[in-house]
Amino acid sequence: MTYEKYADLSALLAAVRPALRVSRDGVEVTDEAKLRAGVVDQLAYNAANGVSPAVRQAAAYLVREAARALGLHSASIQALYEARARNEYEGVTVPAVNIRGMTYDFARAMIRTAKRTDAGAFIFELAKSEMGYTDQRPADFAASVLAAGIKEGYRGPIFIQGDHFQINAKNFAKDRQAEIEGLRSLVREAIAAGYMNIDIDASTIVDLSKSPEREQQRENFEITAEMIALIRDLEPAGVTISVGGEIGEVGKHNSTEAELRAYVEGVREELARRKPGAKGPSKISVQTGTTHGGIPTPDGKVAQVKLDFGTLERLSTVCREYGIAGCVQHGASTLPDELFHLFPKTGAAEIHLATGFQNMMFESAAFPAELRERIYAHIRQALGAEKKPDETEEQFLYKNRKRGYGPFKAAFWELPEATRDALARELEGKLEFLFTQLGAKGTRALVDRYVKPVPVAAVMPDALKAAVK
Description:
Layout: H1 9-16, E1 20-23, E2 26-29, H2 32-49, H3 53-70, E3 72-74, H4 78-85, E4 94-98, H5 103-117, E5 123-127, H6 128-134, H7 138-151, E6 156-166, H8 169-174, H9 176-192, E7 197-201, H10 213-234, E8 242-246, H11 257-274, E9 283-286, H12 309-321, E10 327-329, H13 342-346, E11 350-353, H14 355-363, H15 369-383, H16 393-400, H17 409-413, H18 417-437, H19 444-450, H20 462-467
Parallel strand pairs: 3-6, 4-5, 4-11, 5-6, 6-7, 7-8, 8-9, 9-10, 10-11
Antiparallel strand pairs: 1-2
Helix pairs in contact: 2-3, 2-7, 3-7, 5-7, 5-18, 9-10, 10-11
């Protein structure tokens, strides 16, 4: 597959005509075989790499509406998590995978794995920070995921999540309102792009110098409640967007039961004041001993960490006292393989996986050495001033190679097809292992029992509406 950048909306509309009928009333799939054979690939590429905002927005819209027409829906995982809170199932920790690069091919690999393992409980996600250094906005990320679903013939609900919609502590200290408004703006953008799952993270401003725990968590639960109220105002009719909260910043001290109770009760009280009757968080992220990306050793490998499964199990049980599915484990993808089967046993609701897959890609024999060296050269030149005196070259590159995704975004998309296929096969092997260990294998029937996706129409961009005859 050779990708083509469409010069304008006329070229885009001409290219999709064999598979889609586009009118001002919407989108109709006229030939699914042609759509899957090549049209959807080009749409996904142009949604992410189009020559203009108009082309990118139009391509993303066409993907969303084609998916909706075929019965593939971006959905909220809320009902599944409510069932977990009621103890109607157990033994499943839902894998949420952050895709930083080669997004379309990675998403296809996840969906193929899901079909092969009969999995339904799995999440595609992108964090606020990742949007910056990977040059992916909610609309093109969602388009890549939905396009992957179309390409692989997937149907039903699919879960797309905004991860770590986070308050930046330094910016918050400088201008509280500007930082909060920036988060509100991101929430609006994500919902407009079709996200039905959003994690709010104000744990960065927890103040442990205060006492008791309620005062430590106050700004965290107040901002979280404010964002939940906004989400409830914006969510589509018939949809309850699943919202996650966070009490302990990953990489800091391990979370406690007192902190969890103070936060949950604070969110409930504040939300009742802001929007009576509104549902609160469906899951809570806690700290149990991990760090995002792992801790690199001088040789660029990842140090082993001691994860406190007792804390994870105890706090997940407390969550369910409040009608919350359980805890979320962050920073887990670089853990040893022999630990993953333990997460479902603790009752953890969800686990976030990112850097381990990034490491697989960069360190794969299939990854072009020339591109890797171009990325490393860019990092040395652009970020060299950030290298700490006690860091080795290997540690510096390990910590910063994720920041090569954005400047080389198109290069990841345009890797030779054989290379992308080889990398995808490696990713599928790891995904199948994780789906099995985490209990996601065989969960399609469970998801279908609880999750009834609501078809939500996207808003046609004005430029596309003007271009359609």
